[in-house]
């Protein structure tokens, strides 16, 4: 072939590829556009409002890494007080962003640049997912049209993939999808190359580099993509598990069809080996630590050559084909039994992998860990619709079709992988709905194949080919004789008819648009318009108050902490914790710059649940001291509650303790039997704090409340008044309330024995709401009250509160009234005041 001919071939290839290139590029731009629709909800004045909970901790990591670049935050003393915690998240997601921002910011990026880049980061990654989706679909079905349509569908798919790649949702989930899809795409091409070049052990023995290079190139890239995936998510062993399942199944299929399996062992060992090197090289892997990753990858490296060796052995012995799967089943059972009794680490790994998606107890209350199709204890398909539009259902039918063709026809390795990959994702998402963001790619690829099949059946390929042929056809130099004019006219008319769309062409396009495109796109746009979630104005307000009105912890927020030998950080005496429900831990860290006890890693979830469901102030206080390794210190100085904790989330707090009985009881009403809060609920620490404003408590005082918000608070107070004879003002109060745990000043005095003595005050909050505070006791000749509020106001270096009594405490008994002032130092030091 001459240079001119080569250039012509290259130009033709580029020309033919341009429509698909622009198709993928447009898909990326559409994806990014949809994902930045709610920008106004994210950029609120100078404040960048990230969505959800975990994105705030990524902001914490990004700020810390930028300050200590390139060192990653391996241990964090700013959460899980009083212990601190080793890093739960793998480093790659944050390191990529920080590296880019450091370059843009010339080594010293401003906080504004960091926050803005972090907000747009997931939207950009969400758009880029179109690239590996295109290649995975194109290579799996050997059709660029399937690839480009799949890229478009993944751009508009709604549900969790959209929400977790939205502007402001600064979390690793979208990176999981991006890297895992690259793994799938490159593996598919590696499998195609293995078949094209008939890769086996002899290929390597004979050093047939022309065959080895293209195969190994894609195997190595697959390994690099898997390494990136495992360094971007602490649960990255998941997709290694997907590959492992496929390799085992493909071994069985190949053996049953008398095909050699060496290519699977070679590919698996190299892919898992590259990922293993990356895991071992990374100083931090997060989550479960490296143990599960290392064991899982080594298992693949060891098992795959064994599977191949057994296949070769069974074939050399001319044993019946079904002996192979039977032997593997027996071998697996033997390994499980043997490891249970003699190799506990192996058995533990098997149990952990097999239960990877299963949740129970308090963990079952985590929204993303709940089963996809179960809502309120009932099975419903609506989550499937809101997660994928019609793509979810269509993809299931395509899977059935592919499974049928796999049984009735000779299937390719890449289609087998697509089936296994999709089925594992379905299995995962049915148990934990978070995995719907993984299956979005599978749904897009499978539905794209269905859409292109419909267009094929309608005759679009023939129509396009006819149009191309007509365009390329040269005009005839010698017209036909006049006597054939009539025949020529008929032929021309027939040819023209084949070059015009007919009713089936139009109907097929309309069908694809109405079934695959419109539902997914319209749901995605509607979901994008809702915003990104995250802390409301009340929480932001409360966290900023916490940051600027409470004492410094003495722990540097941007410090790169050393990992303590015993796993417990040595906090200075000035440090203190904040007790709230785990949902809000990262907000307390990243916005409030204070140290929560419980966090969205679910650390402290049980003990926080026990604190808030404690049946008395004394029991709650005892829990604070039980948590801290120093028996003379409490696990929290501040307690933060919101109305959700007092209402809808209360059941979750109880579930984490393992005791949910008796908090709600049935009563008969005019509209039938209703479940209402019980006396046990109203006795709980959470109710006493939030519903009753800590009235009568000795060591807990309100120091801040946010503006009120829409809630069920009035209803809870109404039930208390009507059912239990209470007298609580039926009004909405602060949506978020911050309480301080103090020593309390003790006021003692004398009163006639048997006399009822009351101490009271009127508390005015920072929102200018007033409520009554009082305690009552029966004198035995003396009385003693411990009170948490200072009547003289805040002092330097301590909590700078506005919520405080309007005047002195009033002690009353018989006809006697005594006014008593209590200083802030008295309250903090636990001073006894005698009157």
How many beta-strand runs?
Answer: 20
What is the general shape? Answer: elongated
Q: What is the arithmetic mean of pLDDT?
A: 90
Number of helices: 33
**Helical content (DSSP H or I, runs of 4+):** 40-55%
Radius of gyration: 33 Å
Q: Measure the end-to-end span.
A: 109 Å
- Unreliable stretches (pLDDT < 50, length at least 5) are none
Structural class: alpha+beta
Largest sheet entry: 5 strands, antiparallel
Strand content: 5-15%
Structure description:
By secondary structure, the chain is α+β, with helices and mostly antiparallel strands. Among the domains are: 179 residues, no CATH class; 93 residues, Sandwich (Immunoglobulin-like). 55% of the residues lie in helices and 11% in strands. The chain contains 33 helices and 20 strands. Strands 14, 15, 17, 18 and 19 form a 5-stranded antiparallel beta sheet that branches. Helix 15 packs across helix 16, helix 18 crosses helix 19 and helix 26 packs across helix 29. The longest helix is centred in the N-terminal third of the chain and has 33 residues. The model has no long low-confidence stretch (mean pLDDT 90). Keywords: Glycosyltransferase, Magnesium, Manganese, Membrane, Metal-binding, Transferase, Transmembrane, Transmembrane helix. Its main location: membrane. It is found in: Cell membrane. InterPro entries: AglB-like_core, AglB_P1, Oligo_trans_STT3, OlisacTrfase_arch, STT3_N. It catalyses: an archaeal dolichyl phosphooligosaccharide + [protein]-L-asparagine = an archaeal dolichyl phosphate + a glycoprotein with the oligosaccharide chain attached by N-beta-D-glycosyl linkage to a protein L-asparagine.
């Amino acid at each position: 072939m001459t240079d001119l001919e080569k250039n012509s071939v290259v130009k033709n290839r580029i020309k033919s590829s341009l429509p698909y290139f622009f198709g993928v590029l447009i898909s990326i731009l559409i994806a990014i556009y949809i994902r930045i629709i709610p920008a106004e909800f994210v950029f609120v004045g100078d404040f960048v409002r990230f969505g959800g909970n975990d994105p705030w901790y990524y902001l914490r990591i990004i700020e810390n890494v930028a300050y200590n670049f390139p060192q990653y935050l391996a241990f964090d003393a700013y959460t899980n007080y009083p212990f601190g915690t080793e890093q739960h998240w793998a480093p790659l997601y944050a390191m990529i962003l920080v590296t880019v921002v450091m370059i843009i910011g010339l080594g010293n990026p401003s906080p504004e640049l960091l926050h803005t880049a972090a907000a747009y980061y997931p939207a950009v990654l969400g758009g880029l997912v179109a690239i590996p989706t295109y290649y995975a679909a194109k290579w799996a079905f050997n059709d660029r049209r399937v690839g480009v349509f799949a890229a478009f569908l993944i751009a508009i798919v709604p549900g969790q993939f959209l929400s977790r790649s939205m502007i402001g949702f600064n979390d690793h989930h979208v990176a999981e999808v991006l890297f895992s899809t690259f793994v799938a795409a490159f593996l598919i091409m590696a499998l195609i190359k293995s078949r094209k070049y008939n890769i086996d052990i002899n290929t390597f023995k004979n050093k047939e580099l022309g065959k080895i290079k293209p195969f190994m190139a894609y195997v190595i890239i697959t390994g690099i993509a898997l390494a990136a995936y495992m360094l971007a998510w602490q649960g990255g062993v998941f997709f290694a598990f997907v590959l492992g399942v496929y390799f085992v199944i493909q071994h069985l299929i190949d053996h049953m069809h008398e095909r050699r399996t060496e290519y699977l062992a070679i590919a698996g060992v190299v892919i898992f080996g590259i990922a293993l090197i990356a895991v071992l090289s990374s100083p931090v892997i997060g989550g479960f630590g490296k143990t599960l990753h290392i064991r899982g990858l080594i298992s693949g490296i060891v098992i795959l050559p064994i599977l191949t060796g057994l296949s070769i052995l069974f074939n050399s012995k001319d044993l019946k084909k079904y002996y192979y799967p039977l032997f593997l089943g027996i071998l697996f059972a033997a390994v499980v039994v043997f490891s249970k009794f003699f190799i506990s680490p192996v058995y533990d790994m098997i149990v952990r992998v097999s239960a990877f998606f299963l949740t129970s107890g308090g963990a079952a209350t985590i929204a993303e860990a709940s089963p996809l199709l179960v809502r309120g204890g009932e099975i419903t398909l609506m989550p499937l619709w809101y997660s994928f539009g019609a793509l979810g259902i269509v993809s299931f039918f395509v899977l059935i079709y592919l499974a049928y063709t796999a049984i009735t026809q000779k299937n390719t390795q890449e289609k087998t992988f697509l089936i296994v990959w999709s089925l594992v994702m379905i299995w995962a998402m049915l148990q934990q709905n978070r995995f719907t963001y993984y299956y979005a790619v599978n749904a897009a690829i499978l539905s794209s194949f269905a859409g292109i099949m419909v267009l094929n059946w309608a005759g679009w390929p023939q129509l396009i080919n006819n149009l191309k042929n007509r365009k390329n056809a040269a005009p005839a130099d010698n017209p036909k004789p006049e006597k054939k004019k009539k025949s020529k006219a008929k032929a021309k008319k027939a040819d023209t008819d084949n070059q015009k769309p007919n009713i089936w062409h139009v109907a097929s396009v309309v069908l694809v648009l109405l079934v695959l495109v419109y539902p997914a796109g319209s749901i995605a746009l509607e979901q994008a318009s809702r915003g990104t979630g995250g802390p409301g104005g009340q929480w932001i307000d409360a966290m900023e108050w916490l940051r600027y009105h409470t004492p410094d912890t003495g722990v540097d927020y941007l410090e790169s902490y050393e990992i303590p030998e015993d796993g417990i950080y040595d906090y200075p005496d000035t440090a203190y914790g904040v007790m709230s429900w785990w949902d809000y831990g990262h907000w307390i860290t990243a916005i409030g710059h204070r140290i929560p006890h419980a966090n969205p890693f679910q650390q402290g979830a049980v003990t926080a649940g026990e604190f808030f469901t404690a049946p008395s102030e004394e029991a709650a206080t005892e829990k604070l001291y039980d948590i801290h390794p120093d028996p003379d210190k409490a696990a929290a100085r501040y307690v933060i509650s919101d109305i959700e904790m007092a209402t809808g989330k209360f059941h979750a707090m109880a579930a984490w303790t393992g005791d949910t009985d008796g908090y709600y009881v049935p009563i008969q009403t005019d509209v039938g039997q209703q479940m209402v809060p019980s006396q046990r609920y109203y006795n709980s620490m959470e109710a006493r704090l939030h519903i009753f404003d800590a009235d009568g408590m000795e060591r807990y005082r309100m120091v801040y409340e946010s503006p009120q918000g829409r809630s069920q608070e009035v209803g809870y107070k109404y039930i208390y008044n009507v059912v239990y004879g209470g007298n609580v003002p039926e009004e909405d109060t602060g949506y978020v309330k911050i309480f301080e745990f103090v020593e309390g000043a003790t006021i003692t005095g004398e009163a006639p024995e048997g006399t009822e003595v009351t101490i009271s005050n009127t508390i005015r909050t920072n929102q200018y709401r007033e409520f009554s505070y009082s305690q009552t006791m029966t004198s035995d000749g003396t009385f003693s009250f411990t009170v948490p509020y200072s009547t003289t106001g805040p002092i330097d270096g301590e909590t700078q509160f506005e919520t405080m009594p309007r005047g002195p405490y009033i002690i009353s008994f018989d006809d006697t009234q005594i006014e008593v002032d209590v200083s802030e130092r008295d309250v903090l030091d636990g001073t006894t005041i005698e009157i």
